[in-house]
Structures are given as structure tokens and as C-alpha cells.
Amino acid sequence: MAGFSRLGALERRVERTGTSLSWLLAALLVAYVWLVVGAPIDSVQGPIQKILYLHPPLAYGAYLGFIATGLGGVLYLWRGSEAFDRMAIAGAEVGLIFCTLMMVTGPIWAKGTWGTWWSWDPRLTVTLLLWFTYLAYLLLRSFAEPGARAARFAAVYGIVGVVLIPLNYYVIEIFEARSMHPDNLERGSLGDGMGMPFLVANLTFFVAFVYLLARRWEVENLAARAALRESEEGDRK
Amino acid sequence: MRVALAILWKDLVCEWRSRDRVAAMLLFSLLVVVVFHFALPMGTSRAAVTQNAPGLLWVAYIFASLLGLNRAFALELENDAFSGLALAPVTGGWLFLGKALANFTLISIVELATAFAFALVFDLDLKGVALELALIVALGTAGICGIGTLISAMAVRTRFSEVLLPVLLLPTLIPVLVGSVQGTAAVLAGDGVPFDAVQLLIVVDATYWIVSFLAFDYVLDE
Amino acid sequence: MNGYVLASYSITALTLILYGFYLNRKRKSLSEGPESNTS
User: Residue A20, Cα to own-chain centre: how many angstroms?
Assistant: First the structure.
């Protein structure tokens, strides 16, 4: 019970973050929908280019998710507070969702523009590897002995995973990029009138990620509290 | 540092006494090479084989390494030696170093034999490029052992460790694989030692060995 | 409206919104106390 007073402060901050963000998110969503619908249609790719306001913004969640996981792990190892381990769990789950959505929208976009569902485009490739890293992390968590050991192992693997992100980028850029589709250059280009929707899209998904992360973290905190309460009641009986 | 050498010596002596790990890895590797021969369709041209040889070689190496790494901590697990290691008044990093070097040595022995078998089965002339190839293989193996030792120490103490080890390890091996395969391909094509592949492998190896060294304590805690 | 665009946006929106609702529901049930803990 001793750790709970300190825990309480962090918990409350997590809860307040979630609540305050929900209003900001609602406002952003309205702006987002309005801007995306009104955005100009790309002359080269046609309407499908509007996935631009979806796929790259999802990347925020995918990458930040893993950074949250890694950071949570490091803080857990350093400070020993389980709240940070719960942040890692939240980061992994929310991040996996964003990453999976990236893996879904990416091929859809590819099919619509290049005609193939998959290509070893650097960004798609690194996202694929990140996706596998997420799944491996979650598998490790579920197979390791629950409690401190799972948290510790997960923290270590989380650090490895975070290191892996820039490493994979480095590798893919140097070697795989040699066989890049020429069309890829067009996908990233922003025409007139696309700057604002793109900016708002990125902002919206960033806030959405932080909001969902805060909520997921809070759920984990509440669950831990409930479990503690139950075990204490069990002890008293 | 002495601790690292002590662990290294202990592991090598243990292996020498029973030789079961190396024997199993060796047999497995040779089988994999033969399987690869049958895996390539009958009409595959010699040029196609030579082009894909580096990739196949490294797949064989990775499979063998997975086998070896799986058993790397088996003795410690069976004899409940993890607590002993954790209580030892040394930084976990040195224990990692000893273990990783032992893994490196044993896996390298298997890789050497596999290379001979590979050259035989696929009719490749490796003599001219032996030294350059050895360099690439050493760098690649160092990468595998660097991160593999850390992950194996974790995986071995979980449920379904035989499945978890590859699942955890393979994503981390992608950079190592890319560098090694590119390097091997360049060497076999007679282009000499490829600077970019070597540079990549050195960066990856250094990163993995440093991270594992620093994190090993957390993996041992009982 | 392009089919691909529709698919992408709806999948994303559905997933994230449903997830958000799921989290909020869990939040409420957990903070109401052990009696209403449905997990």
C-alpha cells in the first residue's frame, strides 16, 4: 500500500490528461473531417490520394506507441514503480492498433496507386518489422511468468525494440532503398491546399494517440487497484 | 573481465566434455543444406543458384544459431544456476560477455563446417574468397550472438521457450541478415570486401553488444 | 467516392472509435468498485 500515495498522483494526472484531451480531440475531429472532405483532389493519383490524411498520421501512434513502451520500460527499471510498466503495456496495445491500421491502409493505398497490395517500400517494410516487434513484445509478456519478471523482461525487450527502429531505418535506407519504386516519390509530395489538412490530420491523430494511451493506462491502473483491493480483502478474511 | 573469461572457459569445457550441442547443430546444419538442394526446383540454373546462395547460407546459419542459442542457457536452467549468477558480485555484463563469446565460438565452428558442405553441395569455389568470407561471417555471427545471448537468457525462462526465442530474435536479426547477405554476395561475386555492408554490421554489432552488456543484469535478477 | 478511400477511412474510424468506447466502458466499470467489476 505504501507505493500507492505516490502512485495516486501519477494516476490522477493520467486520468486528468485523458479527460481534458477528450474535448480537444472532439474539436480536432470536426476540423479534420471538414478539411479532409474539402481537400483538393490530387491531379496525379486522383481521389485515393486522400489516404495521405490517414496513413502517415497513423504513423504517429505506431512509433510513439513503441517509444512509450520503451520509455515505460526504462522508467520501470530505473524507478521500480509499476505504474511505468503499465504505461508500457498501454503503449504496446495502443501502438499495435495504430500500427495494424497502418498495415491495412498502406496496402490499400498501394493497391489503388501502384496496383499491388505489397511492395518493399522502405516505409512499409519498417512498419512491418515494427509490427512484428510489437507482437513479439506482447507474446513475451504473455509467456513470461506474470509479475515482476514479465515486467523486467518486457522492459529489456522494449529497449531492444526501440533501438531496432532506427537500425531498421538505417538498414532499409542503405540497402533495400536501391530497389525503390519510382512512384514512391509522388506519394509523399504535397500539392497546394494540402498543407493544412495534412497538418491537422497529423495533429488529430497525435492527440488521438495520446488520449487513447492515457485511457488505456488508466484502465490498467484501475485494474491494478482493483486487484490489490481484492487481495487485501482476501487477506483480511 | 576475468569473470567473462571464466564463464567462457567453463562453457567451452562443458561443451567439450559432452559435445552434444555442437554435434546437434552440425547435423542440423548439414541437413538444412541438403534440404536446400532439394528445395530448389530441378531446372534452376547455376547462375540462379549462385545468386541465391548467400541468402540460403545465412538462413542455414540463422537456423543453426537458433538451435544453439536455445540450449545456451539450458544447463543454467536445469541446475537452477540463474540465482547463483544473479547473486554473484559482478556486473551482469561480464557474464553476458563470457556467454556471448562461448556462443560465438561454438556457432562459428558449426558455420565453418556448414560452409564446406555448402560449397560442396552447390559447387561453389570458396577458397579464393575464404578470408573475406570469414570476415563477413564473423561479423554476422557476432551480431547474432550479441543480441541472441540476451534474448535467449530471457526466452529460456518462459513458457514455450523454443517458439518464443525465434519470435523475439528474428525481428532483431533483420539488420544483421541484410548486412551479412549483402556482404556475402559481394564477396562471392569477387568484388572484395564491401565497405557499406561491413560498416553496417559493425554498427549493428556494437549496438547489440553494448545494449546487451548493459541490460544483462535485469535479465538475471531472481 | 473512391472505394479504397472509403474502406481505409471507415476501417480506421471504426477501429479507433470502438476502441475508445471500449476503454471508456472499462474505465467506468473498474472505477465503480469491485462489485461491478465485470472483467
Answer: 20
